[in-house]
Design goal:
alpha/beta, 5-stranded mixed sheet, 13 strands, D-Maltodextrin-Binding Protein, domain 2, 2 domains, 17 helices
Amino acid sequence: MEPTQNQNIYPPEVVAPPKPKRKFPKIFLWLGVGILAVLLAVLLVRLLGSRTTSLSGDLTWWGLWEDENIVAPLISEYEAKNPKVKIKYVKQSPRDYRERLTSAFAKGQGPDIFRFHNTWVPMFRNELDALPASVINPADFAKTFYPIVSSDLTLGTGIVGIPLGYDALALYINEDIFSKAGKTPPATWDDLRDLAKELTVKDDQGVIIQAGVALGRVENVDHWQEILALMMLQNGVDLTNPTGKKGEDALIFFTIFSSLDGVWDATLPPSTAAFAGGKLAMYFGPSWRAFEIAQANPNLKFITVPVPQLPKDSPTQSDVTYATYWAEGVWARSSKKSQAWDFLKFLSQKESLQKLYQNASKIRQFGEPYSRVEMAGILEDHPILGSIIKQASGASSWYLASRTFDGPTGINSLLSKYFEDAVNTVASGKEADKALETAAAGIQQVLSQYRLTK
């Protein structure tokens, strides 16, 4: 009988014989192993290739002040140690620099490394990469650089820049004027005011022919922003809301040199030019102004001294000065961030900073003041930089800064306008409290725009 479909042709007690196993050809086995090996090799090459890309290639560095021949030897030294890395230094013009930097970031074409002012962190909060702890951890950073640097360059919980130099306000002294009058530099603001009146010389018509100090106005006092901010900070003023008696006193004191004492007025040339011309006894400015002054008048004898202070509550109280300097940052969207940070770590080492200083000193009077605390002793006796270094440990800063070239919408420019209006209001004889109330409202708007309000 023919078995029907699904019918078992064996009796239940009989087990069907097993079907013979089909042997898998060995050639296919070896072929599979070979394909797997090729795939693994390709994957390994890709992984190594991507790692090589992150640790090699071209870095673009936007500088601002230093000529290429100052940084080129350091670039060459780094490239020799890292032969797969090439660094292109591009010196930028200060004109519209912040706006051009912003535009480059918006287009996705930003430099891997770029220079920015210590007050610019809020404007580039989304573009600044955080310094990896594996490069420099926060504790070591705080010990390496001056306290103000850690304060200025911290964004959230991260550090977003490394300074290759440091600068701050100093008081420039015309040595010939002081020597002729038998005077010594002032230590306090009251000393400075008395000296300014004594050293001011006027003709028969009351025209100033030698000014004691450039203070009291905004149109011809270079760095008035930093000077006013310094006075306010020393007096305990909260610059985010400078209203109240302390703010009023500082604002009035700034204007009094012109409005009451008559040691400076609107007819005089800009303060830097006046000092370079030998017609100004005391002048406030950062260290780099010395180059401009010396170039304008090579025969002028001048030094800088620490900025004046208010009377101290205790002899151990630190001097307060006003810092204004530049740092190097890494673009958050750079494909070579790790290499960029490694290069900046190399540049910020003691030996590298000394080489940068020496290279700069070959073409101008001196290099940038050192930003590392351990290097303070090297420049303490320098006739221009010594005073800046001596007060660096007590430096403060804020967003009121001049000549940062941050453009009409930048935080420095916007805040300067409100403080300028306040100075002009008081200089015209109006009340300081009203002037500061108006300024405070504008200040809050600017700070809110840059997410700096609580």
